[in-house]
Fold this protein.
Amino acid sequence: MEQVRAQWDTTSFDGTYSDAKHQSEQFNNYKRSQKRNYVAEKTDLEYLLGNIQTKVKTYGLRAYTPPQGLLLTDLDAAWRTLGKAEAQRSKAINAKIGGSVFSSLGIHLEISFRCLSKCADV
């Protein structure tokens, strides 16, 4: 998850609509593939830890404590951070797509207005 966030932090837009659209497609592919794998892995880990804790209680075994950095609270914090990074990435992509469209539209409107002004003067 850290690698994905780092990649998003270093990726820049070239200012074109096609680049923003391409990055949007990459982001959607991430959500359809890689994120689903992360969610499945998280679910498996939660299940396994619950299974371990059930067996510990059932058989009166020594309590299991996951290693530092792998506690459920640590995993939840990592997921919250990823969620925030995803929201920021989505907003950045949408802003670039919207900005490109409006910028392009503004240029076309300005050209059309100039043509109409010239035609009106004739």
In short: DSSP finds four helices and no strands in the chain.
